[in-house]
Write the structure tokens for this entry.
Amino acid sequence: MRQLAHFLRSDRKSVLVAKVRRKYVNESWAGRVPSSITLHYSTGKDVRDIRINEAVGYIFTSSNQGGLCITDLATGEDLWLLPVVSTHFLL
């Protein structure tokens, strides 16, 4: 019985945390909560798309030519690169 009560308490807590997080994300997209702008110079040129995962500390960028780069958010070091592939050789 104690295990069930503990499970229900922890489950209610996780639901509440999820609701608060969802509300914060919705409010931030609507521009009603503070945000901050940070500059990252190591993302390269001709960036087409950028995604930042602050939980793990990675920046994911793709270029207009098709390359992909994963950069460490803290150090700015490129961790992994997928180079641009020329389509001239595929014909």
In short: The CA atoms of residues 8 and 14 lie 10 Å apart.
